[in-house]
Amino acid sequence: MTDPAAYLPILESGRWFAHLPPDFALPLIGMAHLRQLQAGEVLFLRGDAPCGLYAVVRGAISISGTGGRANEARSALLTRLEPPHWFGEISVFDGSARTHDAHAAEASTLVQIPHERLQAWLQAHPAHWHALALLLTDKLRTAFVAIEELALLPAPQRLARRLVMMAEGYGQWTAGGQSRRVLSISQEQLSLMLAISRQTTNQILKDLEQRHLVRVHRGEVEILDLAALRAACL
């Protein structure tokens, strides 16, 4: 498919887009075009100029960062974005460089709203900045939760919470109670995402397996009992 409008059912399954007023949602799709990425391909890197607003409609995008001295640099996987997530809004607001790296975790299709076209449209329709701000504040709330968990919770609870959040699409879906049974995430990626060792991640997942809450496959975690896994977060 080459028409972004063909992906409207996927976009409308997401809470943010589904609640946009039609006089913003329709022009947004009218400005859009599709981007196809192969697994591992770069979408943008930290320091790159703004290139627009994006929505994942197929596949997954990894958002990551690297820090430390060149010979001691460490990578952190911040999140993995799957349909129908929108992202890239920070640079839409401040016009500054990208803050993190974005790569295709697998073959992916994105809806892209080019930066210049979106800026020009918003300049002519300033009332719709508020709707875009709601996307930003939603991400900010999620970031604060992650910071709090990192500071206060032990690794087993943080891992269980992250699995629940991923299974529930980080609260982005419109359908109440919707969840994903199989998560495309490796143990290495989980350890990077939660800033814990690969060994600790493996031990926690083995414990969850023994409690029949999850089943670990190569590159995947299958949720067997979401309610019990959610209880393990407390």
Describe the structure.
- This protein has 234 residues and is of the alpha+beta class.
- The protein folds into two domains: 152 residues, Jelly Rolls; 81 residues, Arc Repressor Mutant, subunit A.
- The chain is 42% helix and 22% strand.
- The chain is built from ten helices and eleven strands.
- It has a four-stranded antiparallel beta sheet.
- Helix 8 packs across helix 9.
- The radius of gyration is 18 Å and the shape is globular.
- It starts with 7 loop residues before the first helix and ends with a helix.
- The mean pLDDT is 93.
Strand line-up across the major sheet: 1-8-3-6
Compute the number of strand runs: 11
CATH topology of the largest domain: Jelly Rolls
What is the name of the CATH architecture of the largest domain?
Sandwich
Number of domains: 2
Dominant shape? globular
Straight-line N-to-C gap: 44 Å
CATH class of the largest domain: Mainly Beta
Question: Could you write a compact summary of the structure shown?
Answer:
By secondary structure, the protein is an alpha+beta fold. The chain is 42% helix and 22% strand.
Which helices and strands appear, and what pairs or packs with what?
Layout: H1 8-12, H2 15-18, H3 22-31, E1 33-37, E2 42-44, E3 53-58, E4 61-67, E5 74-81, E6 86-87, H4 89-94, E7 101-104, E8 108-113, H5 115-124, H6 129-152, H7 155-167, E9 182-183, H8 187-194, H9 198-210, E10 214-217, E11 220-223, H10 226-231
Antiparallel strand pairs: 1-8, 2-7, 3-6, 3-8, 4-5, 4-7, 9-11, 10-11
Helix pairs in contact: 8-9
